[in-house]
Amino acid sequence: MAQHKSALKRIRRDARQTLLNHSRISRIRTFIKKVEIAVDSGDKTAAHAAFGLAQPEIMRGITKGVLHRNTAARKMSRLNARIAKLS
Which of 24, 25, 37, 52 is surrounded by the most beta carbons within 10 Å? Predict the structure, then answer.
């Protein structure tokens, strides 16, 4: 266990940030799941609309540091490919 005042403060800050990061990741996963559900149902317009809402959330994950930019690009690319295949 940490003894220094600064180390104790850092532990408290890390705990708060961890909770925030988990909620951000969960929010991103929820938006991605909505796109996947729309794709599985075969509704291209709903999937496209859900993707339009998911894209800014994924990009926000990059700026907040919870997703790597290549991971986010891969996820968006795969979702977009699945939507395009629905024609």
Answer: 24
